[in-house]
Each structure stands twice: as C-alpha cells, then as structure tokens.
Amino acid sequence: MNDTPRPYSPRTLAAQALGRIEPHTKAVVPPLHVSTTYLRDPDNAYRSGFAYGRPDNETVRHAESIVAALEGAKAALLFGAGMAAATAAIMALPPGRIIASQVMYWALRDWLVREAPRFGHSVDLVDTSDLDAVQAAVRRDRPALVWVETPGNPLWTISDIAAIAAIAHAAGARLAVDSTVATPVFTQPLALGADLVMHSASKYLTGHSDVIAGALAVAVEDEWWSRIAALRARHGMILGPFEAWLLMRGLRTLDVRVRTQSASAAAIAARLVEHPAVADVLYPGLPGHPGHAVAAAQMTGFGAMASIRVSGGENAAIATAAAVHLWKRATSLGGVESLIEHRASIEGPASPCPPDLLRLSVGLEHPDDLYADLDSALRAAQNP
What we know:
This protein has 14 helices and 12 strands.
C-alpha cells in the first residue's frame, strides 16, 4: 500500500497505518521519532523537511496522514488537546460573528462565551438541530463561521450537516463540525459539505483513555488552514510524538472498537426505554429520538453515547451513579471502559443539561453485564 486513500477503504488504511514499512528494519509497526532538533545540510538548508520539533515531527505527520485518510480530507493537523484544535481554528479567523451549537461540549461552549470575544469574535448559540433557527441566525448575523457539534453532547441532538453547509455557504460563511462522537467511522462531514472537521482525539480516535489530543481535518488547504498551522507552530500547540504514536495505535483498531461499542449502546438503550426508573433515553438510534431521521441519513451508525433521565430527579440520578460497580464514575468518553457521569454537576448552572440526566459512554464490556449493573443501580436509587 501507499499513502493514496484509494482503492483501499479507510478501515484498511487505518488498520495498517497506511501500510508504511520502516525501511531499515522492515518493521510493520511505525517507529517513534522523538528528536527535538535536526542536522542541517552543509549549506545550512534543511532538505529533510525538518528543522525543529515544535512546529513539526515525523511521527505526528504519519498520524495526521491516517486522520486525513479516515476523513477523506486534503490535510490534517494534530494538537495537544481537543480544545487546542478547536480554539486554534477560531483564533485563525479574522474577527467576526460565530454561530455555534447550543448543545455542545461544555468547555468549548464556555470558551466561546468567555474568551472568543477577547479575540474580536461575537458568538450566538443556536439550536442547530432546528434548520429554521440556523437560517434565521445566519440571516441576522452574517457569520464568518458556523460551528456545529453533532451528535451534541450530552443531549445527543442531531444537526443536519449538508443542510447547514448549504445555509452557511450561501451566506459566505464556513462550516466546522465537531464529529468527536460520530467518529469518521459513522460520519464524513467533509463529504457532506463541511469545510473543517474537528475531533477531541482523546476520545474514540485514541480509544484507551491514555492520551490527550485534538485533530483538525480540512477539505481545502486555503488561507485559513495556513493560518491554523502557523498558530499551532507559534503557540506550541503540536501534539507530542509519543502521544501521536499512541494515537496511531488507537486508530488502527478504531473501526472495530466503535462498531462494537455502538452495537452495545443500541442494545442497552433499547432496554432502558422500558425501564421503570428511566423517564427518558436520549440516543439517536432510537426511532423516537427527534433527530433519528437525520441521523439515519447522514450516519452509518448511531455511536456509543447515550444519556438517560432518571425518574425521581437529580437526587435519584446522583444516587444511581453512586451505586454502579462496573460503570466508572468519570469524565470523558470513547474509551474501552464504560463511564457514567452526572453532567449537570460538572457543567454548572449555565448548562442546558437537565439535573436528572446521566451521560453514558459505552465501552467494550459485554452489554448484558453493563445493563445488569445499571439496572441494579437504578433500582437501588429508587428504593434507598
């Protein structure tokens, strides 16, 4: 194989890390390049393409090539965190108006509200699952950027990427999509018309809860993309080589992990719908979910994230999380272990998250074991 993403499928490319073989040892596992500095040529040029470790690294480049192949992207860049990736994309824009999803990762929403204005941006949070609301906001504000997270954390709202791309582009705006939860396995935002796709690579792309990383992939290498790359270099935002190597390891099993986790999540969600201690199940794969039809059209799977609203309110939800044994009470998502969290306690009073909601990240454990543990905790919380 070579670096060309055809005729091989993204799954095959990722499984073989693009099929590169280390030429000296013939190793099938990509080597780790950790040097911070590189030898100049006798005339002081850098014909190897590397000068210093802060702006560039061969291991990082290799991992970026895999992300780009998975997303069908022209190029990709890796960052030291998902927040670094997202904020670099926004800081690289000229000052202007930004429309963003009302339901999205709380830390980025908070940054948009508190910090983006310091860089000359004004931000309008909109229900991007409502196309009429998006159209009205775009007409009113003439944004430079529309930022959509779909599915939207932690309510798992679904936004129509193709329709929003058309609305944004008609107004001269760019569309960026946070596709962390969908992963490139289930959604291809660039193919649906997005200009940029972002991932908190700490989650599914790495998949083992042992790396903090972020990724951006782009449809066109334009001036905006050049500015993002320059900001990464100047602000020291690049991912470390060891973390990039671990990310590559995770990417090689991404497809099988995510498909297994998604199947388990769907099975658990279907059973929880009938649970007497559950008031509502928020999962796009359920036919009753308000975004199900759009999700079915733009996703090839519904992902491994779900939320439940617990009968009995906030106290019952917190008591449920306290009573689990197999699920782990922890922040984050996308790892091989299943996590449960009371999000309102984390996000604070400005959160759109209901106080009776528990977020579930379904891992690789057997779904029957996960359901039994949650069922026991739910019943215990209802009968203290």
